[in-house]
Amino acid sequence: MQGTILVATAGQGVVRSSDNGQTWARTPLGQALEFDGVVRCIAVHPDRPDVVFAGADVGLVRSDDAGFSWTRVDGPFNDMQLWTLSIDPHDGDFMLVGSGAPSRAYVWRITDGGTTWEELPPRIPEFCDGVSKPRILTSTVDPVDTDQLWFGIEEGGLWHSEDRGVSWERIDTPGTTGTVTNSDVHTVLVHPGEPKTHIVVTVNALW
After folding, report:
1. pTM of the prediction?
2. What is the dihedral of CA 178, 99, 140, 9, to 10 degrees?
3. Per-10-residue mean pLDDT, the chain, length 207
């Protein structure tokens, strides 16, 4: 909806403005998303901007009125902390969702808009160096070739799929040059320009 801004917060749910930031309001009471919930990520449906998804400490929630009210999207991640979600920009029924600390880190995909969820490989270790329990901090669908998927872990590296998530390969290679060499991946983006550019942000570098 024009003029609407949504901000995910770590303790005040989703803060919403409907007038381009002039005034703000917190999530109303009585929602699937708690008034004081922890929300790590937000994604907007590519064809229906009034449909918004948020990854929170209760799992995945959905709004059909541009973030004013929220309902739960039932799935295997119920009551798990979700850290990332990404929607195919050409197919709003396809989504990647990643969980993490204090929950176990998993990646799921959906191809039918919210009914059937599939856990994807690889099986991520329960514990890691640096942050105790890993979390899937970032994911993206290549806007040019949507078979190409990416996700990054704090800590656990950069992962790439060429077949819509069926199989994955770890891309970061510590000790070499020319590729990402830090396993603490915070953001991965694909810019569709000429040439197409991949941008990876790690804890202390931009690649």
Report:
1. 0.92
2. -110
3. 90 95 93 94 95 96 95 95 97 96 96 89 88 94 96 93 95 65 89 91 88
